[in-house]
Design brief:
single chain; SH3 type barrels; about 20% helix; about 40% strand
Length: about 240
């Protein structure tokens, strides 16, 4: 065996042994060495702060799908060891569209937030009847039709596209084509909007967690700010016993 062949064989042996060691560690309960940090979605509960990594994983396997695509009001249940619980997805919200990025605006239904928005555009009035859509395109689903003369709040103008994300009575409803909007009387001379931001999708939830005869019930909000679903600490009230 040449010197190079010996070195290559030694390197391969070292790699294989290292891979075996990592696999054994994961199978022993340590988890994949490449996984991201666990998120304890029950951190708003006294019982939840006592969960083991295995129990946190069991909760996450129910929590994430429920929040991502579950029907509002329909609980997803889970159990692990002596613990059991449920997570019930609730209302939709959007964050990072106001000067304080933690401000949560209620959203009616699931709306697309893929494009950057020039925020705080001010008040507008519909020139005529207009379709309200889930996304900034003619192919997006129509949510409803609004009557001409309806007042809307321009939450954000889609950068590079002729579409406005609008809210009515404080609730974000969807997108309207810019050609159908005119500045509300008395607001024509307002400054042209705020900084460009990316909307961040959020959702409310309620949870239960049971250990033997003790049960915690609480509510909270999670947002995806670019790192997957994370609890919003200011929006998580203390658990009720």
């Amino acid at each position: 065996m040449t010197e190079n062949s010996y070195c290559n064989a030694a390197a391969l042996k070292s790699f294989v042994l290292g891979a075996i060691a990592l696999t054994v560690s994961a199978c022993a309960g340590g988890g994949s060495p490449f996984e991201t940090a666990r998120v304890n979605y029950a951190a708003g509960s006294d019982l939840g702060r006592q969960l083991s990594s295995r129990e946190v994983d069991a909760l996450s396997s129910a929590f994430v799908p429920a929040i991502t695509s579950g029907a509002s009001g329909k609980p997803a249940v889970w159990s692990s060891g002596s613990y059991s619980g449920s997570v019930t997805p609730g209302e939709y919200f959007v964050a990072n569209l106001k000067p304080d990025p933690a401000t949560l605006l209620p959203v009616e239904g699931r709306i697309e937030f893929n494009d950057p928005l020039q925020t705080e555009r001010g008040l507008f009035v519909l020139k005529g009847d207009a379709n309200l859509r889930t996304g900034p395109s003619m192919e997006a689903r129509v949510v409803t039709k609004l009557d001409g003369g309806t007042s809307v709040d321009g939450v954000g103008k889609v950068v590079g596209k002729p579409w406005m994300l609008v809210a009515i009575n404080g609730v974000v409803r969807g997108y309207i084509h810019e050609s159908l909007l005119v500045k509300a009387p008395g607001s024509e001379l307002e400054l042209a909007g705020g900084p460009t931001r990316r909307a961040q999708f959020c959702r409310g939830f309620s949870q239960t967690l049971t250990l033997f005869a003790q049960t915690d019930h609480w509510q909270g909000v999670v947002c995806d700010r670019g790192e997957g679903w994370r609890l919003e600490p200011a929006a998580v009230p203390a658990p009720s016993m």
